[in-house]
Amino acid sequence: MIGFNYRRIPAFALAKDLISEGWLGAVRHVRIACVQDWLADESGTMNGPLGNESAGSGVLGDIACHAIDLIQHLTGQSATEVTGARRTSAMQWPGTTGLEDVLVDDAMWATLGLTGGIGASAEVSRVNGGEQNSLRIEVYGSRGLVAFDLENPNQLSFLDAAVPTNEQGSPLVLVAEPDSQCLETWWSQGQVIGREQTFTPQVGHFLLAINSGEATRPSFEEAQQVQRVLAAIQESSANKSKITPVQLPAQTS
User: Fold this and answer.
1) Residues 75-105: pLDDT tens digits?
2) 49, 61 Cβ separation under 8 angstroms
3) What's the angle, vertex CA 135, arms to CA 219 and CA 108, rounded to 5?
4) Domain that holds residue 65
5) CATH of the domain at 52
6) What is the DSSP letter of 118?
7) Whole-angstrom Cα distance, residue 24 to residue 136?
8) What SS3 state is found at 223?
9) Is the backbone peptide bond immediately before 153 cis, with ω within 30 degrees of 0?
């Protein structure tokens, strides 16, 4: 099972349906920001996935992977090139040997070029004071947009630009309705959801897939594609934000 639990937020299931069914027209741009504050306070304890030495890929593997997965999942397209920038700060935490500077890979910015002519931007950070776990995403198309904010997890903003201008708006759609895709695993009509409950539909989908013999989603190949994008962002950052192609797997005949 691949643990991209943010996919299981009902609002994203609805957003993907709207996009794939053409309600936004041709998708042109995606913008996502995932910022947290749990590393902002240096008086706290240093723990969790931090630098490359202790956690493999730092902020990339911790939260940027979710941002990249959501961009590719919602659009149904793959990133082919990126530019990236990362910031690593020297911070001080009380440790077993006293106060000492610790290098923390704490923020990342990236732009992505995707198949289908789509552009995207991503910003992630773990040192944004006042933002406990903020996730905001906007998908813009030729005839509208959808937007989501994790602080309002039961609502999706949808603008249909095909209607007359004086009738346009960005109505909030409640996603706790009977046709929600989460009903088969845990959801019940009208029940609100929080971040922690995204794991229940994730496990439910996994068990239902085992029972039916169907493939689980996200697939291993989708997760591997996210890792390729993260590697390209890391390479681009090391090369002063040089445009870097995403190394796709070789095609087999």
Assistant:
1) 999 999 999 998 876 666 555 454 445 556 6
2) yes
3) 80
4) 5-239
5) 3.30.360.10
6) E
7) 18
8) helix
9) no
